[in-house]
Amino acid sequence: MLKYFLRRLAILIPTLIGVTIVVFAIINMAPGGPIEQRIQQMRFSGGDGSGAPANSSNRGSTQGVSNEIMEALKKQYGFDKPLHERYFLWIKNIATLNFGDSFTYEEPVLDVIISKFPVSLQFGIISLLLSYLISIPLGILKAIRHGSFFDVSSSFVLFVFYSIPSFMLAILLIVVFSGGSFLEIFPIGGIQSEMYDDLSGWGQFMDRVYHFTLPLVCYTIGSFTSLTILMKNSLIEEIKKDYIRTARAKGVSEKVVYMKHALRNALIPIVTGLGGFLSVFFAGSLLLETIFQLDGIGLLSYKSVLSRDYNVIMGLVFIQSALFLLGNIISDFAYVLVDPRIDFT
Questions:
Q1: CB of 173 within 8 A of CB of 217?
Q2: Alpha-carbon distance 283 to 252, whole Å?
Q3: pLDDT surpasses 90 at 55
Q4: Contacts for 186 with CB less than 8 Å, ≥ 6 apart
Q5: Domain boundaries along the sequence of the chain
Q6: Burial class of residue 139, CB neighbours in 10 A (0-12, 13-18, 19+)
């Protein structure tokens, strides 16, 4: 078993390098890089050094820009070296967690990413906990009462919410509960009130709950539905197996049959998602963050792509890929914990 996980860790490094090579090549070959965007900004201010007016026809290209300015910009953004040299230099800096400076924010990339953590991390952790803490008991209850009115009605409600896109649900919730045409219970957006620092500890907690409720519903509803149905179906499959019939034939109570014998095996498909808990550090949704005015990772990723902020893009890709690969290994550990019979050797 130990050898298996050591092999997985050994494979993680070349896999991560392969991902970064592909992404690095793609974003550097994409048109409209940071130099072109910087030149456009200079032309809007009339400072391109070429004497051309800001509204001239050569806007959006590098034509008409003096060689001195081009060379200075290439050196400033690190484009004065060949592509492969830039990549190896970037990999070398990664060893010290140096992702370079953001072209847009003019700050270290790591500082920019960390500044967006609070929003995404809070929503990621809370939505993950809510998904598992509610979905597993609800799935068990639906399996026990399979075919009942409770099972059918709850499935109907779950699938209705699951079929609604998260951004449409966000708009609907705002219209109904945030002073639209109906109620005014929750705020339209943001994560805290203006007077947050003046509130007591309990007041700050309730203020966060007040602001988090609607976004959390939208963040959670998709995974909540799929986990509940997965838990129900997995448990139903288990109780049809021979060892459950044997347990019942021995006179074991239904509670023990479900909660002791069947549940442990039924949880095996569920734990596949536990490794994804690392992704909560980068939980983000562009549409939800825009609708609810949340400055998180999703919005940062979108803005970085638009502005061709290569260093931020590569930093996000590297960290997210590393967490995803580590999450897969953790899922394998979770398999073994749930069912010791599993042997990866």
A1: yes
A2: 44
A3: no
A4: 173, 177, 178, 210, 211, 213, 214
A5: 2-110, 117-295
A6: buried
DSSP string of 1-63, one letter each residue = -HHHHHHHHHHHHHHHHHHHHHHHHHHHHSSS-HHHHHHHHHHHTT-SSS---TT-TTTTSST
d(CA 99, CA 291): 30
Q: How far is CA 74 from CA 94, 120, 324, in A?
A: 21, 34, 34
Can you say whether the dihedral through the CA atoms of 95, 96, 100, 105 is positive or negative? positive
What does the alpha-carbon distance between residue 240 and residue 98 come to, in Å, rounded to a whole number?
A: 54
Contact between 196 and 204 (Cβ < 8 Å): yes
Give Cα separations from 32 to 59, 69, 250, 309 (angstroms): 12, 17, 72, 11
Residue-level pLDDT at 59: 40
Q: Which residue has the higher pLDDT, 145 or 68?
A: 145
With a pLDDT cut of 70, the percent of the chain lying above it is: 86
25 close to 314: Cβ distance less than 8 angstroms:
no
Rounded Cα–Cα distance for residues 274 and 335 (Å): 10
Name the token pair of 43. Answer: 């032309």
- Here the tokens at position 81 are 């070296």
Query: What per-residue confidence (pLDDT) applies to 70?
Result: 74
Residue 178 — very low, low, confident or very high, per pLDDT cuts 50/70/90?
A: confident
Fold (CATH) for 117-295 = MetI-like fold (1.10.3720)
pLDDT band at 232 (very low <50, low <70, confident <90, very high): very high
